[in-house]
Design brief:
The complex is a heterodimer of chains A (about 400) and B (about 240).
Chain A: H1 2-10, H2 14-54, E1 57-60, H3 64-67, H4 77-85, E2 90-104, E3 109-117, H5 119-125, E4 132-137, E5 147-151, H6 152-158, E6 165-171, E7 177-188, H7 193-198, E8 199-203, H8 204-211, E9 218-223, H9 229-239, E10 244-247, H10 248-251, H11 253-291, H12 293-302, H13 306-342, E11 344-345, H14 350-356, E12 361-362, H15 368-394, H16 398-401
Parallel strand pairs in A: 3-8, 5-7
Antiparallel strand pairs in A: 1-9, 1-10, 2-3, 2-6, 2-9, 4-7, 5-8, 6-7, 11-12
Helix pairs in contact in A: 1-13, 2-11, 2-13, 11-13, 11-15, 13-15
Chain B: E1 2-15, E2 18-31, E3 35-39, H1 46-53, E4 61-66, E5 69-70, H2 76-86, E6 87-90, H3 102-112, H4 117-130, H5 146-159, E7 164-168, H6 176-193, E8 196-201, H7 204-209, E9 212-217, E10 220-226, H8 227-235
Parallel strand pairs in B: 3-8, 3-9, 6-7, 7-8
Antiparallel strand pairs in B: 1-2, 1-4, 4-5, 9-10
Helix pairs in contact in B: 3-4, 3-5, 4-5, 5-6
Classes of the chains: A alpha+beta (about 400), B alpha/beta (about 240).
Chain lengths: ~400, ~240
C-alpha cells in the first residue's frame, strides 16, 4: 500500500521527478562507465603483463633477482620443469637464461636484459610472438643464423631495422666479457614501453654457442586459468621451499596494488557523485513535503501513524534514486557493451600510454559485483536523502495542517 | 449513551506576549446518534473545539473522554491509533489522496487497520454505493466534483466504523445542490445507522438540519439547544 502510494506520488509532478531522475541517471552512468573503463584498463594491463612478460608464476634462485648475476641459476631445472608440467593446472613451462648486458649497433648502444629462450616453448608460454607485425619479421624460425628479436623502441634507439647486425656484450660466470654478433629477425611492439626498452630475445642454443653450458635462471609458468594462480602458487611454494617462487602479483607489485585499490577508488568516485546528487534529491523531497504539508497533516489526522508516514517519504526518495540509478546502469551497460567490442582508441596519445605501460586502446569491462554495489549505494543515497525531509514531515501538526484557510 | 465528554476544557495559545483563550472552560457531552452543529463567528473556537474532540490537539487544561477513554492522556502514537479506529474526519478541503481513486481512498483507511482484502473491497463498494458513487469507483479526485469528493470523504470516514464523525465546515466549498446532496446522505446515515455527526459550520443549511446546535463565542458555549427547542422558539 505505502509502496503503491509512494510510487504514484513520485509522478504527481512529472517534470520535477524526471529532472531528478535524469541527473541521477547521468551521474550513475558516468560513474559506472568510468569504473568499467578503469577495470578494463587494469584487466588489460594484468592480462598483457601475464601473457607478454611474466606469466602467472616464476621460479628463480633466491639470490638471482638481486643483481641478476650469472652464477645464480636453478639447480636441476629440467627435472623441476617436468614435475611442474605434470600439474593439471599448468598449461606451459618455459626455461629462460637471463643475462644483463649491452647491445650495440653502428649508431648507438643500450643496456638490455637478454633472455635466452626456446622459441617453440616460449610460443606456448607468452604471446610476445604475436606482437611482431607481418612487415616486422618473424619470431625466430628455421635456417636463421644467430637471430635476435628486439623491440621497435630499441630499434629506433639503435637506429636499426630488420636484418640489421647487432653486437651483444655481457659478462659470463667467470667474469670474462663475451661478445656475439646477431642479426635482427623480428621486431616486436607491445603496449609497455618500459618492457620494450630493455628486453631482447635470442635462442638458448645460440647462447650456448657463445658460453658453453646454458644455465636456467628463470622458469616461467603459464596456467590454464588465472583463478588457479593462488592454488598452484601454494603448491610450488611448498614443493620448492629453498627457491624463490613468485606470482605475477609479486613480480608486478604495482599492478597488484592498483587492481586491489581500484574497486575502492571506483566506489569512492561513485560515492562522491551520489553525494552530490543527494543534495538535489533532498531539495526535491523538501519541496514535496512542504507542498503536501496539508495532505500529510490530513493523513496523520485520519490515522496514518508516523512510522508509515516516514516510510512513505523514504520510499519516494528511494524510488526516485532507484529510477535514476536503474536508468543510469542500463545506459552505461549499453555503452560499456559497445565500447568493450570496439575499444576506445586513444592512439593519438599512444606514446604517453606506452611510457606508463598501458595500451592506448581501452576496453571497458563490466563487473557484476560492482553493479550490485552501485545498486546498494543508490538505495543508501535514497535513504539518507529522505531522512531530513521525512523528519520535517513528522513534525507537521495535523491540527494546523488541516486548518481552514 | 454518551460517547463524548468534555470536562472543563481550556485551550490557550501564546501569540507573542498575548494569551489567546481559544477554548475557555467548555464542558459538554455528546450522545450516540446525535446530529450536532457547533456554530459561532470566525475565531469563536469552533475548529479548536473540534480538534480537541478529535485528538488533533491537546488541551491546556481539562479532559476529553471518548467512549470512556481519556484521550488527553494518550501518547502521540496511541492517539493516532485511537483516531484511526474511533473517529472519522471530513475536512473542508484536502480530504482525499489525489493519486488514489475513489475506491482506493476509501479502502485506504481499512488498509491502515490491516483489514483483509476481501472485507476491504466489499465494504468499500457498499460505502460508495451508499453515498451514490457506485459508478465512480475508479475515478481520481481531480475528476470528481467538490460534492462528489466530499461524499467520498464521508464514505472514507465511515470505512473505519468510527464511533462518530467530525466534519469541519464540510459544505463550505460546495454549491447549494452539492450541499443538499451531502446533507441528505449524512442525515440518512445518521437516521439509518445511528452514526453520530458533529459539525462545525457557518452554513445555515447545516444548522437547519442539525438536531442540536451548540453556539460558541470567544471560546465559551453561549447556547446549547435541541432542534425541537429551536423549532418551538421560532414559532414563538
Amino acid at each position: 500500500m505505502i509502496f503503491s502510494i509512494a510510487w504514484k506520488n513520485i509522478w504527481r509532478n512529472k517534470l520535477r521527478s524526471l529532472i531528478v531522475i535524469a541527473a541521477t541517471t547521468i551521474g550513475v552512468a558516468a560513474g559506472t562507465f568510468s569504473a568499467a573503463l578503469m577495470f578494463g584498463v587494469a584487466t588489460q594491463k594484468v592480462n598483457s603483463s601475464i601473457s607478454n612478460e611474466v606469466s602467472h608464476i616464476q621460479i628463480h634462485n633466491p639470490n638471482f633477482r638481486e643483481n641478476y648475476e650469472f652464477q645464480y641459476s636453478l639447480p636441476e631445472a629440467e627435472k623441476m620443469m617436468k614435475a611442474i608440467a605434470r600439474l593439471p593446472e599448468v598449461k606451459s613451462v618455459a626455461p629462460r637464461t637471463i643475462i644483463t648486458g649491452m647491445i650495440m649497433s653502428a649508431a648507438s648502444s643500450s643496456g638490455i636484459k637478454l633472455s635466452g629462450i626456446d622459441p617453440e616453448i616460449e610460443k606456448k608460454t607468452t604471446t610476445l610472438y604475436t606482437k611482431i607485425a607481418d612487415t616486422s619479421g618473424v619470431y625466430f624460425g628455421e635456417g636463421l643464423h644467430n637471430p635476435i628479436v628486439i623491440s621497435q623502441k630499441l630499434a629506433d634507439k639503435l637506429n636499426v631495422r630488420l636484418k640489421s647486425k647487432l653486437i651483444l656484450r655481457f659478462q659470463s660466470a667467470d667474469g670474462s666479457l663475451i661478445e656475439g654478433a646477431f642479426k635482427i629477425c623480428g621486431i616486436y611492439h607491445t603496449s609497455n614501453g618500459m618492457f620494450d626498452e630493455i628486453n631482447v630475445f635470442i635462442r638458448q642454443s645460440d647462447l650456448g654457442s657463445l658460453i658453453g653450458s646454458v644455465p636456467v635462471h628463470e622458469i616461467a609458468i603459464l596456467l590454464h586459468n588465472d583463478l588457479q594462480t593462488a592454488e598452484v602458487f601454494a603448491i610450488l611454494k611448498k614443493s620448492y621451499p629453498a627457491l624463490e617462487v613468485l606470482s605475477w602479483k609479486e613480480l608486478l607489485p604495482e599492478i597488484g596494488m592498483i587492481t586491489a585499490m581500484l574497486g575502492m577508488m571506483n566506489y569512492f568516485i561513485l560515492g562522491i557523485i551520489l553525494a552530490a546528487l543527494a543534495f538535489g534529491i533532498v531539495n526535491t523531497m523538501l519541496m514535496i513535503v512542504l507542498e503536501r504539508s496539508r495532505e500529510l497533516g490530513m493523513l496523520l489526522a485520519i490515522g496514518m501513524n508516523k512510522n508509515r508516514l516516514f516510510r512513505m517519504i523514504m520510499l519516494e526518495s528511494i524510488l526516485l534514486s532507484l529510477c535514476g540509478g536503474a536508468a543510469g546502469m542500463i545506459i552505461s551497460t549499453f555503452i560499456i557493451w559497445l565500447t568493450s567490442r570496439t575499444g576506445i582508441d586513444l592512439s593519438s596519445f599512444s606514446k604517453g600510454f606506452e611510457s606508463l605501460g598501458f595500451d592506448p586502446v581501452m576496453y571497458p569491462e563490466i563487473r557484476p559485483a560492482f553493479y550490485l554495489g552501485t545498486v546498494l549505494m543508490v538505495i543508501i543515497t535514497g535513504v539518507l536523502s529522505s531522512l531530513y525531509p521525512a523528519r520535517k514531515a513528522l513534525g507537521i501538526n495535523p491540527a494546523l495542517a488541516v486548518k481552514n484557510e | 449513551m454518551e460517547i463524548i465528554q468534555l470536562k472543563n476544557l481550556y485551550k490557550i495559545y501564546n501569540e507573542g506576549s498575548i494569551e489567546v483563550n481559544a477554548v475557555n472552560g467548555i464542558s459538554l457531552t455528546i450522545a450516540e446518534g446525535e446530529f450536532t452543529a457547533i456554530v459561532g463567528p470566525s475565531g469563536s473556537g469552533k475548529t479548536t473545539l473540534l480538534n480537541l474532540i478529535g485528538g488533533l490537539d491537546k488541551p491546556t487544561r481539562g479532559e476529553v473522554f471518548i467512549n470512556g477513554t481519556e484521550i488527553t492522556k494518550l501518547s502521540s502514537r496511541e492517539l493516532i491509533d485511537f483516531r484511526l479506529n474511533n473517529i472519522g474526519f471530513v475536512f473542508q478541503s484536502y480530504n482525499l489522496i489525489p493519486v488514489l481513486t475513489a475506491h482506493e481512498n476509501v479502502e485506504f483507511i481499512m488498509q491502515l487497520q490491516n483489514k483483509p482484502v476481501a472485507e476491504r473491497h466489499r465494504r468499500t463498494n457498499e460505502l460508495l454505493e451508499s453515498v451514490g458513487l457506485g459508478d465512480k469507483l475508479d475515478v481520481r479526485p481531480s475528476h470528481l466534483s467538490g460534492g462528489q469528493q466530499q461524499r467520498v470523504a464521508v464514505a472514507r470516514a465511515l470505512a473505519s466504523k468510527p464511533r462518530f464523525i467530525l466534519a469541519d465546515e464540510p459544505t463550505a466549498n460546495l454549491d447549494s445542490k452539492a450541499t443538499t446532496n451531502l446533507l441528505e446522505i449524512m442525515e440518512h446515515l445518521n437516521h439509518e445507522e445511528n452514526m453520530t455527526f458533529i459539525f462545525s459550520t457557518h452554513d445555515q443549511r447545516v444548522v437547519n438540519k442539525a438536531h442540536r446546535v451548540i453556539t460558541i463565542e470567544d471560546g465559551v458555549v453561549i447556547s446549547d439547544i435541541e432542534q425541537e427547542q429551536l423549532a418551538h422558539s421560532s414559532q414563538i
